[in-house]
Amino acid sequence: MSRQIRARRRTIALITAPVLLLLSVFYGLSFGSVPISLREIWMIITTDSQSAHDTIIMNLRLPRVLVGLLTGACLAAAGAILQGVMRNPLADPGIIGVSAGGGLAAVITMVLLPQLSYLLPAAAFIGAFATSIVIYFISWDKGTSPVKIVLAGVAVNALLGAVMNGIMVVYSDRIQAVLPWLSGGLNGRSWHHLSFMAPYALVGLGLTIAAIKPANLLLLGDDSAKLLGQKVELQRLLLILLSSLLAGAAVSAAGLIGFVGLVVPHAVRLIIGEDYRFLLPVSILGGAALVVFADTIARTWFDPIELPVGILLACVGAPFFLYLLRKRSNWR
User: Fold this and answer.
1) Which of 13, 141, 225, 317 is 20 to 30 A from 110 via CA?
2) Where would I find the H helices in the chain?
């Protein structure tokens, strides 16, 4: 791909991504069992309007949309970082076990320690963080490699999934509230959920700015990065921990939503290249827009049933990812 074509695509992507984000917000706020016009939504948000739809927007749709935005942004950022660190387009928080670690900690909290449910985001982060450390040291042998990390992550992911299923079998009388969460969804998300996930998500997203330079250098390969004076192992560890924070924040509020961290960064990379100065911000905006669009579709197109957004994303994400792989040679 020539520099001119890539530069034009990057410009288009940087303009299109914020527009898609705004459209997803308007779509999520406007549509549902009660359609509401954009003019009325604007008045409700910006004034002390006593509209009949005030409760629907302020207490139901707006917090749900904001949780969806942060969830998608965190998952896409985590996937982009992991794919760069491991130089593997199949790396994402769900595949290498980071999300499973956060999920297991969240399940333990919800099933065994329901009185500590207010600590769910912290528990999810600790679970994701601990899983990342375990994977990192399992793959360590006088250094690590992306292949070793992925293989260790797949094995740990399977183990954590088995433990999670075991807990649900043993405590089958307590899992009704956990099952929708395992499918991944935003049903019932409120200002409470936003308030406990937002600090973790915003800190993690803010730290992605510092991840741009080391992620770009790691793309050169370990030997080249070391020649440039980089502490490769330390940078890889810190970036993996950052992805754990992002994945833990998303898991704590929305459950086990898959494919966002895999498909979005991969699609963006195919279009605009691997430079993290452009890849990270476009992936963050694209992931946020995708989750809100998908959640709105899941709760409106299948009325009166509300389909968990995680199921919809899995059904759409897998075929789309295969399509991207088929078209990759044409986009280079």
Assistant:
1) 317
2) 3-30, 38-46, 54-55, 62-85, 98-112, 120-138, 146-170, 179-183, 191-218, 222-227, 232-254, 260-272, 276-300, 309-331
